[in-house]
Amino acid sequence: MLLLFLKALKILFILAIIFFVVTFTVYFFNLDMKLTAAIYPWLLRHYDKVKRDQHLIAPEKEMPMQEQAESEEASKRGVLEPGTSRGWALNEVFPILVRIPRPRK
Questions:
Q1: What would the pLDDT profile of 45-104 be if each residue is shown by its tens digit?
Q2: Is residue 88 a contact partner of residue 74, using CB atoms and an 8 Å limit?
Q3: Residue 22 Cα to chain centre, angstroms
Q4: Largest separation between any pair of C-alpha atoms in the chain
Q5: How far apart are CA 26 and CA 19, in angstroms?
Q6: Whole-angstrom distance, CA of residue 92 vs CA of residue 98
Q7: From CA 93, how far away is CA 99, in angstroms rounded?
Q8: DSSP state of 52
Q9: What is the reported pTM?
Q10: Phi and psi at residue 55, in whole multiples of 5°?
Q11: 8 or 66, higher pLDDT
Q12: How many angstroms separate the Cα of 48 from the Cα of each of 1, 29, 44, 55, 75?
């Protein structure tokens, strides 16, 4: 039993040494970046083929009537609605963030 354990320990030690040598060689010669530079043109070709939305502003969706009514009520009360253009102005919410220009002399 002890002999089997020592044999397994010896195999693990040899594997650890091999792993260290391989990873140190990759690190020393910067092989990961060289491989990336070799693969980069293929990645660019793939990325150029991917279809993507090129619109700067996404079209707004129609709100259901109930949401629209609730939204109008909230804007009348001055409630800030995150993610919408309605609600308070930025300078009312965070007055310290708004830069006030100094008058020129």
A1: 988 888 877 766 655 555 556 555 666 665 565 555 555 554 445 545 555 555 555 566
A2: no
A3: 31
A4: 92
A5: 11
A6: 9
A7: 14
A8: -
A9: 0.42
A10: -80, 140
A11: 8
A12: 60, 31, 6, 17, 43
